[in-house]
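Protein modeling request. Please complete all fields; requests missing the sequence field cannot be processed.
Requester role: graduate student
Desired output: 3D structure, token encoding
Chains: 1
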Amino acid sequence: MSTLPPCPQCQSPYTYEDGASLICPECGHEWSANDSAADDAESVIKDANGNVLADGDTVTVIKDLKVKGSSLVVKVGTKVKNIRLVDGDHDIDCKIDGIGAMKLKSEFVKKA
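Delivered output (112 residues):
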């Protein structure tokens, strides 16, 4: 059994094939099976200015960020070295001096 990609609009896992098309039964969206492979290859992570990020880059925080579960704050201008890109809501894994391991959203950093 082959696994089909989730719907690009509603992320429903219940997609099915109809000829050369993929269909979502929940929202009714139809798309080509060939387009889904191209979308996966084009998933790039960009910083707040639109620059493409890569593993190992150095970024700078552009907004004060509160650390959830503590009273610590990552201040504006904090440089983060050697980032690792991951899939998910927070797309950057990193270590910040004085705070430790952390996940950041790419919209709150700029490439240094």
